[in-house]
Amino acid sequence: MYNSRISGLGMYVPENIVTNDDLSKIMDTSNEWIIERTGIEERRHIKKGDGNTTAIMGIKAAKIAIERAGIDKDEIDLIIFATLSPDYYFPGGGVLVQEELKIKTCPAIDIRNQCSGFIYSIATADQFIKSGMYKNILVIGSENHSGGLDFSTRGRAVTVIFGDGAGAAVISREEDLTKGILSSHLHSEGKFAKDLALIGPNTNRWVNKIIKDNDPDDISYYPYMNGQLVFKNAIVRFSEVIMEGLNKNNLQPDQIDMLIPHQANLRISQFVQKKFGLSDDQVHNNIQKYGNTTAGSIPIALTEAWQEGKINSGDIVVLAAFGSGFTWGSTIIKW
């Protein structure tokens, strides 16, 4: 029998910083309005000519994670790539990572679970390793949101929230069953699928129809979010799935050393923190700097917290996410 552990972490965000004041120059919004509703002060966006794509950002984060794991790239047995903003409609980003890193012809899986993508990916990697099938798995969460947002007043409620960036982790075999990834817990509720969604393009509306219609009022090509409904569901599901993980492992909330919540909205994170009685030192938030980077959110925050010395050997680390689908999940780790 095997367990799995995170052996290496890496992150990458574009150099281009977009502040709330920058957005207020192109849409009817303000720094105060954005901070009050989201807690976000700035975010990173890909800039034309900087060479970044969803896959390229993921590759940059992956190189750091592989180096920190202390393994050769050809020791990677599987690539799992989580994103809602792939470089191409198909193929997915996993094979682009394999080619760019010149990794041997290992399998590549693409996971489309949006804000919960990294949690679903970690759970998948964990099971492959526990089964004995693979030894080292590269997991990437990466997003290029800025390429598909409505930068007008019409789209401000969504556009101000999202940023670009990537995080990566190497998940490796661990023979000590008392540490590493203890458990993951995954859920979905599809009746809310259209309350946080990007409806077009889809296979019912291919490129010929887009060109033929040429309708400037067609907003289906921009993300839609029923903000209040998402918020209400998020605070409930975050709490439920964290408790599910703690109960599974006979842990109490006060035993959490570090909670890394998906960076959806600072108000959500603060609500969950208060509910579990956690101090500021027990929760890592960076949405203020990077916005919501969806599948990149948790690995970026996890990497940052680890780099800052907030996570140490033996710590109980909890990852939790909620997002489009609706999907949600948690992972409990003994570092």
Give the biggest beta sheet: 5 strands, mixed
- The total number of structural domains is 2
Question: Which descriptor suits the 3D outline?
Answer: globular
Task: Report the total helices.
Answer: 11
Q: Name the poorly predicted regions.
A: none
List the helices and strands and how they pair.
Blueprint: E1 3-12, E2 17-19, H1 20-24, H2 31-38, E3 42-44, H3 54-69, E4 78-82, H4 93-100, E5 108-111, H5 117-130, E6 136-143, H6 156-159, E7 165-174, E8 180-188, E9 196-197, H7 207-213, E10 224-225, H8 227-248, E11 258-261, H9 266-275, H10 287-290, H11 297-307, E12 316-323, E13 327-334
Parallel strand pairs: 4-5, 4-6, 11-12
Antiparallel strand pairs: 1-7, 2-3, 6-7, 8-13, 9-10, 12-13
What's the quick description here?
By secondary structure, this protein is of the alpha/beta class. It has 2 domains: 3-174, Thiolase/Chalcone synthase (Peroxisomal Thiolase, Chain A, domain 1); 180-334, Peroxisomal Thiolase, Chain A, domain 1 (3-Layer(aba) Sandwich).
Structure description:
With 335 residues, the chain is of the alpha/beta class. The protein has 2 domains: 3-174, 3-Layer(aba) Sandwich (Peroxisomal Thiolase, Chain A, domain 1), CATH 3.40.47.10; 180-334, Thiolase/Chalcone synthase (Peroxisomal Thiolase, Chain A, domain 1, 3-Layer(aba) Sandwich). It has helices at 20-24, 31-38, 54-69, 93-100, 117-130, 156-159, 207-213, 227-248, 266-275, 287-290, 297-307, and strands at 3-12, 17-19, 42-44, 78-82, 108-111, 136-143, 165-174, 180-188, 196-197, 224-225, 258-261, 316-323, 327-334. A 5-stranded mixed β-sheet has the order 1-7-6-4-5, with helices on both faces. A 4-stranded mixed β-sheet has the order 8-13-12-11, sandwiched between helices. It has a two-stranded antiparallel ribbon with strand order 2-3. Strand 4, helix 4 and strand 5 (108-111) form a beta-alpha-beta unit. Helix 8 (227-248) runs parallel beside helix 9. The chain is globular.
